[in-house]
Amino acid sequence: MTDAQHSLVSLRRRADRLEVRREDRQRALREAQHERMNNEAYLAIAGGVTDALEALSDSLFKKILVIVGDKISIALQEVLEQPIKLCAEAEFKRDATTVSFEIDREGYREDPLLGQGGSVANVLSVGLRLLALATLPKEEHRGFLVLDEQDCWLRAELVPRLVKIVAATGRELGFQVIMISHHDVSIFERYADRIYRFTPMLGGVVNVRQVSDKAMCEDREER
């Protein structure tokens, strides 16, 4: 092969390589143009989609608040035996939502943290915690709730009503609930699966003794 022929072959190979690169660049350009068109189309409707999703979210949240208000109102009425109901109102702002709670007492509104000696706040707090726990993903959060002296502002005769609601709700939702209280053990025997008494001792030691369980209570009832 002469030098001229060798040069022609080299040029042909180079031309072929350049042609392949050109086709690759053209394909990449078409893909980039297609992606740009999709992005432009998305940006054109992004504002409307965001507004629509926020409106849907607001609507669903309001429906949930209505359910929350109804459920906790029933609990308040059953525990306190008063014609009161919970009113929950949401205020929506971009990237933020605030909820305010009030108690409606036959047309008069009051702050749940005021009045009633804290008994309304006791019941409201329990209800909100149970509902909040029920909305969490079960695969990420265990159904476990500790209520530390949530009956502290309730009169002794009202405590069993709260315990009954907590026990029934916990079993229905599959929660494990621990209630810590200074009230008499007999108040809890009917509803608790197990009851433990914690007694402070000298030296900072706490004596823990199981004083009741479901089987013991059922045995006493049969006798």
Summarize the structure.
The chain has 223 residues and is of the alpha+beta class.
Descriptive notes:
By secondary structure, the protein is an alpha+beta fold. It is built from four helices and seven strands. It has helices at residues 3-80, 119-135, 159-173, 214-222, and strands at 84-93, 96-105, 108-110, 144-148, 176-180, 194-200, 206-213. The chain has a three-stranded antiparallel sheet with strand order 1-2-3. A two-stranded parallel ribbon has the order 4-5. A two-stranded antiparallel ribbon has the order 6-7. The longest helix is centred in the N-terminal third of the chain and has 78 residues, at 3-80.
Q: Characteristics of this structure?
A:
about 220 residues; alpha+beta; 3-stranded antiparallel beta sheet; two-stranded parallel sheet; 4 helices; 7 strands; about 55% helix; elongated
